[in-house]
Recover the amino acids of this structure.
């Protein structure tokens, strides 16, 4: 598809301009008219402009996808044809979602299925999302699947919001402490150093350490910045290697409190996703295959790969999960066994997901409550260190005058 820039007038005769994507100029003009505009001129957009706009517009958030899914489900459930529902959503969408919905609509109008059209936008629609939409199309229950998807995405966003909210306070405090320390080292300490040298003051060891650190920062700050950037870049490269991801993810799981919390968060999302896929008609093997591709932790992903192979060989799902205690708690394999016995795997996994979510929420609150006194202690120690290192030498100088 090509990109076209246009100039047009709206219903109030105001000039507007923009860009649309279509296979040819006639279809591009049609898309502009569908926006309720009167076309004045339309011409191909330059590749540079297209790539720049594409890179900007391809950025979407989980909230964008959740809202889109909820609205699409509501309209299809109300009896609107898919193309008409997408057309309405395109006129309402802005930025990244307008770009994506326009492309999906164009592909659907040309005869592609919704899952196939969405599959061209993997940055917006996950493999789980696409598999569920496809199963809904095959089973003729697309509206029901979209409703479940919307609910799942909304729960994910709510859960992520809780984690972010819990981390805001410590991040702000730590960031503020680092900023104050840098201001002191770069601007305040050098002036005090000059004062101390003028009076040949006898300084405590803590003050000498701070002065030495300040001089080092002033003299070698380019080296400090370059070194920090190089270390971050090297770590990022290592983190993206197979061995690096394995090592880092394993270490993260072994961290006290944080490691267990991370595992709980991942398992909450995993069990919820498996429940949704299995309940929507996706086979267990396909659900496991998709899950091991989208899960963020390598330890969990490798365990899921092995579980998938075992299930393909005929082993019970509960037995396969029980073989990986390093990744999954025993309670999960027990509950899966219950699901296999009752034939209600999706319902059981949904309940397990809720349990993991509640436990994660409690641990996040506990971690936040534990971090606050630790931060206060660190602040107290920092203030005491500053008093001894900076204020006391100044006080001694004033008493000597």
């Amino acid at each position: 598809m090509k990109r076209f820039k246009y100039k047009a007038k709206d219903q109030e005769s105001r000039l507007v301009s923009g860009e649309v994507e279509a296979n040819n100029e006639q279809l591009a003009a049609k898309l502009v008219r569908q926006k309720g505009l009167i076309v004045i001129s339309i011409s191909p957009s330059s590749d540079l402009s297209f790539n720049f706009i594409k890179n900007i517009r391809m950025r979407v958030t989980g909230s964008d996808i959740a809202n889109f899914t909820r609205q699409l489900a509501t309209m299809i459930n109300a009896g609107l044809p898919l193309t008409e529902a997408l057309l309405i959503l395109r006129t309402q969408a802005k930025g990244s979602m307008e770009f994506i919905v326009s492309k999906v609509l164009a592909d659907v109008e040309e005869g592609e299925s919704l899952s196939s059209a969405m599959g061209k936008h993997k940055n917006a629609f996950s493999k789980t999302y696409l598999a569920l939409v496809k199963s809904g199309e095959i089973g003729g229950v697309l509206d029901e699947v979209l409703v479940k998807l919307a609910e799942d995405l909304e729960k994910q966003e709510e859960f992520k919001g809780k984690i972010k909210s819990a981390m805001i306070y410590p991040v702000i405090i730590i960031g503020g402490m680092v900023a104050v320390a840098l201001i002191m080292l770069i601007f305040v300490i050098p002036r005090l150093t000059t004062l101390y040298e003028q009076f040949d003051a006898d300084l405590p060891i803590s003050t000498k350490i701070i002065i030495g650190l300040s001089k080092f920062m002033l003299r070698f700050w380019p080296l400090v910045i370059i070194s920090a950037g190089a270390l971050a870049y090297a770590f990022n490269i290592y983190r993206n290697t197979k061995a690096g991801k394995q090592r880092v993810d394993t270490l993260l799981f072994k961290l006290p409190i944080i490691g267990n919390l991370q595992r709980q968060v991942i398992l909450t999302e995993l069990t919820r996703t498996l429940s949704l896929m299995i309940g929507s008609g996706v086979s267990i093997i396909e659900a496991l295959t998709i899950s091991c591709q989208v899960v963020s932790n390598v330890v969990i992903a490798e365990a899921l790969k092995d579980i998938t192979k075992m299930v393909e060989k005929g082993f019970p799902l509960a037995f396969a999960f029980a073989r990986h205690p390093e990744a999954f708690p025993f309670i999960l394999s027990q509950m899966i066994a219950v699901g296999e016995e009752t034939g209600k795997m999706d319902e059981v996994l949904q309940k397990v997901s809720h349990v993991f979510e509640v436990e994660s929420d409690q641990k996040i609150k506990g971690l936040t409550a534990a971090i606050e006194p630790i931060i206060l202690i660190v602040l107290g120690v920092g203030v005491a260190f500053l008093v001894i290192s900076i204020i006391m030498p100044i006080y001694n100088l004033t008493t000597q005058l």
Observations:
- Confidence is low (pLDDT under 50) at residues 48-53.
